[in-house]
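WARN no homologs supplied; continuing
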Amino acid sequence: MTDGLVTRDLTLGYGAKPIVTGMDLTIPPGRFTVLAGPNGSGKSTLLRALAGTMRPRGGQVLLDGASVPAMAARDLARRVGILPQSPQAPEGMIVADLVRMGRFPHRGLLSRWSDKDEAAVTEAFRLTRTADLRDQPLDQLSGGQRQRAWIAMVLAQRSRIVLLDEPTTFLDLAHQIEVLHLIEDLVHAGRTVVAVLHDLNQAARHADHLILLDAGRIAAEGAPADVLTPQNVAQVFGVNVSILQDPETGRAMCIPKAR
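OK structure emitted
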């Protein structure tokens, strides 16, 4: 049996257009994996397939050897949580109600709120440092606070795999760093996290595993230091870069060359 989240000869598309073609992929368990690549390379499409919200045209998405598309939605949600781009909530919803929604996969239609539900919500607030926001309307929060509240909802599911689609987009630098540190904390706590990021230097600093996508295929994958080479960046992004050592972390960092 295959352990963890994998794809085998995966093909995805919309209408007549293929987006991902023949992809074999293994997500390292208990690590932070970043999907990077230019617009249209298939990052968000792949993430949706991993979450079971998009059915493959061909091939397989497997979780612990079982077909993800064949799983019941509640069962899958107990094991895999996803935060899409720009999630929406009803106007005026407070943070506590949003986070409680994460317990939906674990509760029956008429079941009462349990101690286990309350413990999961409390843990989600603790991990995201949002307990002081629980009575605040979501639409009155700053961008970084709102993103942490949404992540808390996903964590309340207590799924061991967390998928995040562009979790730092539209956030200022301080809030981007805050979200990335939260992701590191989740991995240290035993979660597997997969995120779509556009900033290669953020990926290099924070990720354990980096996957570069190009036109629906894997151009390179592995440790960020091995993946971020001038050749790979030029091939995938069409940009000439120098690779230097981050003075803070010792990891690789990309510096575009002057014209």
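The CA atoms of residues 120 and 202 lie 29 Å apart.
OK
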